Each structure stands twice: as structure tokens, then as C-alpha cells.
Amino acid sequence: MKKILILNDGRAIMELSTIYMYIREYGYIAFFLLFAIGLFIFPVPNEVLLMAGGYLATYSFLTPLTAFITIFLAIIFHGSFLYFLGHKTSLNMNHIASSKQKWRKKAQKGNELLEKYGLKTAAFSYFFPFVRHAVPFAIGLSKYKYINFFFISFSSALVWMSIYFFLGFYYGRTINDWTSFVEQLILTLVVLACLVIMALVLKERLKKASWKNKMKKNRT
Fold first, then answer.
1. What residues have CB less than 8 Å from 164, skipping those under 6 apart?
2. Region of residue 27 (left: phi > 0; alpha: psi -120 to 50; beta: else)
3. How many CB atoms lie within 10 A of CB 67?
4. 168 and 54 in contact (C-beta within 8 Å)?
5. Does the reported pTM lie above 0.90?
6. In the prediction, which pLDDT does 13 show?
């Protein structure tokens, strides 16, 4: 049996062999709960959790397709819970209780993005850690219907999840020791982060170049 640790700041926070035991005993119910709860509270990036899911799918007692579907259902639960939590909250954000300051900040951040990009915000929210929880909550506060949120948000979430699930699945099939797995995982996340930053910088430069060209045309 493989035995690895998910680490945070150099400290072991969860032993995979313990998760292995619960999933082996309770099956896909435990697997679903791992992700449905973990997306909210686990002190590791959600991307790491998804890669761990791909890794776990390499075990013989899980089938990759069923594991994939189970994780996706957990993501749907995550987003839907936040949407309906926002929906049940007063539409006027000033009515959000001060005791829920954390959710007030999430709503404000998500609302800023909604005002700027509209429902398109849901299409990229899962790719950015800081808005992943804020946007579904803010959309729930807004006028947008759940069915619109569902198709736009979870279509992109499926792409986001697939990337990290299959990376974890690939490493689980090709790497046997945990140290190598962690090194590859960190390297992958760094490369992906660099690609995203480069894409954003390029987009900003193209935007500035386009604006300068327009200014020159207006002058002439």
C-alpha cells in the first residue's frame, strides 16, 4: 500500500494511508466527502487536492472514471452550496451581518468582478484561488438564475478539474515515491502559474499597444 503525506509548510497535516483506509471501507461516499469538504476547509490549494484525487484513482479499489465523476459532483456541490448560500442572503450586501465579515468580503470581491465582466466571471472563477469561493456566492446574491450559473461555471470547472486530475493520475502511474511526486507537483504548479502570469502580462501589453494605436489614429 502506498503511504504518502500531504504537506503544508513542511508539516504533515493528513496521512494518505488514513484516507486510503476510509475510502477502502466506505467507498465512493467517503471519496465524495473528502472533496466536498476538502474544497472548503483543507489547508492546501484545491489544485493539490485534485491532483491527490487523480493519484488516489490509481488504486485498484477505485475506477478512474467513477473517481473522476465523483470529484466533479463534489465540485458541483461546492459551487451550488455557495450559490444558494448567497441566494438566501439578503440581496443588499449591507444586510450581511458583521459576524460574517469573511463572507461580506467574498461577496464584495465577487460583486466587483460581476460588475466588470458579468456572468462571464463564472467561466474563469475556478481557475483563480482568490475568487473561486467569492464568485458563486456573489452570483447567488445577484439576479442571475441558477441554471445559467450552472452551465457556465461548471463547464469551466470541468476543464479546471480535468487538468489537475489527469496530472495527478499520470504521476500516480509513473512515480512511486512521495518525494518525487511532491517535486513534480510543485514543478507543475510553478510552470502553470508562470504560464498564466505570462498570458496575463501579454494580454495587458497587447491591450496597451492597441490603446496607443487608437490614440495615434485619433491624433492623425
1. 47, 50, 51, 54
2. left
3. 23
4. yes
5. no
6. 40
C-beta separation of 86 from 139 below 8 A: yes
- Cell numbers at 150, concatenated: 450552472
Angstrom distance (rounded) from CA 127 to CA 162: 12
Transcribe 65-109 into DSSP letters: HHHHHHHHHHHHHHHHHHHHHHHHS-SSGGGS-GGGHHHHHHHHH
Half-sphere exposure of 197 (CA within 13 A, CB side): 6
Q: At what angle do helices 16-26 and 46-56 cross, to 10 degrees?
A: 60
Q: Which residue has the cell 517535486?
A: 183
Structural Rg of the chain based on CA atoms: 20
Beta-carbon contacts of residue 133 (< 8 Å; ≥ 6 apart): 40, 82, 106
- Residue 171, pLDDT score: 81
| Amino acid in position 99 | S
* 126, three cell numbers: 475556478
| H/E segment holding residue 13 | strand 11-15
Quickly count: other Cβ atoms within 10 Å of residue 159's Cβ: 11
Instruction: Evaluate whether 79 touches 157 at the Cβ level (below 8 Å).
Output: yes
Q: Which residue has the higher pLDDT, 133 or 18?
A: 133
Distance CA 137, CA 212 (A): 37
